[in-house]
Write a structure and sequence with these properties.
The protein is of the alpha/beta class. The protein contains 14 helices and 24 strands. It binds flavin-adenine dinucleotide and 1,4-dihydronicotinamide adenine dinucleotide (NAI).
């Protein structure tokens, strides 16, 4: 049968071509091309941060147009939406990290990267002071970086509202090191609770896992932790099965305030079924080594102070300004009323400055501090910088052409140059029509545990709210597709398969 033979050959050929294509992709990834050094005559663009905003900007930026310098204490990009899964080992932290060096090495023109923290932006002098905060320091660990253009994308730090004892006793969930600390602390509490002759009260305290803040970070972590207990801990350490307990404490009357009412109710119902206690209208006022003090509003509307003992305390009460941002705000008179971040205009320019832009959680542009917003701002700014560079290029070309037109030896040449000028002027006009930044909200997604997720999706200028197991698969596929690289995607899938097949690792590193 020749048709079968040809079909077989075609399939075989396509498979071979597919394998060759993947191999070439990997080869290209592992063997980047040489990059031209930045042209010193070009403007120096300094980018602070390697988070969602900064990396989205760098992804789309034509780096050959500027001398690009990136400063960040974190030499990798972190895919934060899957960070709560790292606290229990559903996903290993390296699977959601992408080294900034690999990424920058694939840009067309080379980009300088300094692993350092920006400690001060001196707007008058147009310099950023940077400090090497790592363990190993060379002879020089502080210096300054001059800039012509500056993008501030340093994100935010954890809010504590000055509540005593939070920093000393609580754990945050923002960075990889936080997730590692939480993972270790969970197992430490469990092993200490099963220590010989531990009193029942102490066992209860050690196995009480308290999460403060009912925003998406707190809810997702509480869900992941309860999964860890249900799927793994209680099987391997049955002694704790009647005592391990997760409580979520929230000052407002409900959790997940940014989601629709229907999804808030669904989340609260799911938590109840999972035996996670939600303490709403309960505001934590003080934290000690072994208990939190919270002011709870009772059903009669009366406030009472309560002591809640805990073994693990995860503090997830939102964002606060980083010191470098606070200091910058204080230098700019137009920023005197900025409380939550750098006030920016619709072109993301920091109000009261020229050639300084702010993106992501450190900027206030009337949007929620989310990865979605930061990424769209970064993308938009890259497009604008690319257009600005082209505009500049065309303007120089136009200046050259008008000289050439004046010096043209005959009419024919003059007409040709005139036509060229007309074309370039049209292009310039098109380029200069840069509309302001506009955010498109694609929806909100959150994992709530027991293989359920909630989603408020913007669709056809309406809103579509859904929760459950199908939404969970949607949540997984959405975040998988958003992972930084194919390498990340493969690693995350492998982690999911590993934890589903063998269970999560309960050893304490
Ligand atoms: P970041 O991503 O925080 O990056 C800031 C960068 O600046 C980092 O590289 C940091 O090292 C660097 N930096 C810090 N200080 C300095 C300094 N002084 N000098 C130079 N560099 C500095 N959002 C969503 O939309 N969907 C989600 O599902 C979601 N899940 C989340 C889960 C968790 C656990 C957390 C914590 C957040 C989540 N978010 C989510 C929010 C999202 O991560 C942030 O809104 C987003 O990271 C903001 O991006 P950014 O670039 O402003 O800041
Ligand atoms: P958040 O600001 O969204 O929520 C913090 C919660 O803590 C608030 O509900 C607040 O009422 C509560 N709180 C504050 N002080 C308290 C106290 N003393 N006692 C008790 N409760 C207190 O913070 P979160 O969850 O850290 O998120 C930060 C940002 O990141 C948000 O913009 C969020 O949308 C985004 N994010 C988005 C995710 C998603 O889309 N899946 C996941 C995680 C974060």
């Amino acid at each position: 049968f020749p048709i079968l033979r040809w079909t077989w050959r075609l399939m075989y050929g396509s498979a071979l071509a597919g394998v060759a294509y993947v191999c070439y992709g990997i080869y290209e990834m592992r063997n980047p091309n040489d990059q031209p050094e930045p042209d010193a005559a070009k403007k120096t663009l300094v980018i602070l941060g390697t988070g969602w905003g900064a990396v989205s900007l760098l992804k789309k930026l034509d780096t050959e147009n500027y001398n690009v310098i990136v400063v960040s204490p974190r030499n990798y990009f972190l895919f934060t939406p899957l960070l709560p899964s790292c606290t229990t080992g559903t996903i290993e932290h390296r699977s959601i990290m992408e080294p900034i060096r690999n990424f920058l090495r694939h840009k067309k023109a080379s980009v300088k990267y300094y692993e350092a923290e920006a400690t001060k932006i001196d707007y008058e002098k147009r310099v950023v002071y940077i400090n090497d905060d790592s363990e190993i320091k060379g002879d020089i660990s502080s210096t300054e970086v001059p800039f012509d253009m500056l993008v501030v994308g340093v994100g935010a730090e954890n809010a504590t509202f000055g509540i005593p004892g939070v920093r000393e006793n609580g754990l945050f969930l923002k960075e990889v090191s936080d997730a590692q600390r939480i993972r270790k602390r969970i197992m430490d509490c469990v092993e200490t609770a099963t220590f010989k002759d531990q009193s029942p009260d102490e066992v209860k305290r050690l196995l009480h896992m308290v999460v403060v803040g009912g925003g998406p970070t707190g809810v997702e972590f509480a869900g992941e932790l309860q999964d860890f207990f249900n799927n793994d801990l209680k099987k391997w350490i049955p002694d704790i099965k009647d005592t391990f307990h997760v409580t979520l404490v929230e000052a407002l009357p409900n959790v997940l305030p940014m989601f629709s009412k229907q999804l808030i109710d669904y989340t609260e119902k799911t938590f109840k079924e999972e035996t996670i206690t939600i303490r709403t209208k309960t505001m934590v006022k003080n934290v000690t080594e072994k208990y939190i003090e919270a002011e709870a509003v009772g059903p009669d509307g009366k406030k009472q102070l309560e002591k809640i003992p805990y073994g693990l305390l995860v503090w997830a009460t939102g964002n606060a300004l980083r010191p470098v941002v606070k200091d910058f705000i204080n230098q700019i008179p137009a920023q005197k009323d900025s409380r939550r971040g750098l006030a920016v205009n619709e072109y993301l320019v920091v109000k009261g400055t020229e050639n300084v832009w702010a993106i992501g959680d450190c900027a206030v542009a009337n949007y929620a501090p989310t990865a979605q917003v930061a990424a769209q701002e970064g993308n938009w700014l890259a497009r604008m910088f690319n257009k600005m560079a082209k505009t500049h290029e065309i303007e120089s070309k136009l200046a050259e052409l008008s000289v050439a037109q004046e010096k043209a030896p005959n009419k024919e040449t003059r007409d040709r140059v005139f036509e060229e000028i007309k074309d370039l002027q049209k292009r310039l006009l098109r380029l200069k029509q840069i509309g302001p930044f506009e955010y498109t909200h694609n929806g909100s997604l959150a994992y709530i545990g027991s293989e359920k997720a909630v989603a408020d999706i913007s669709w056809l200028s309406g809103n579509f709210a859904t929760g459950g197991t199908i939404t969970y698969f949607f949540w997984r596929s959405a975040y998988l597709s958003m992972c930084f690289s194919t390498r990340n995607r493969i690693l995350v899938v492998m982690d999911w398969v590993k934890s589903k097949t063998f269970g999560r690792d309960v050893s304490r590193e």
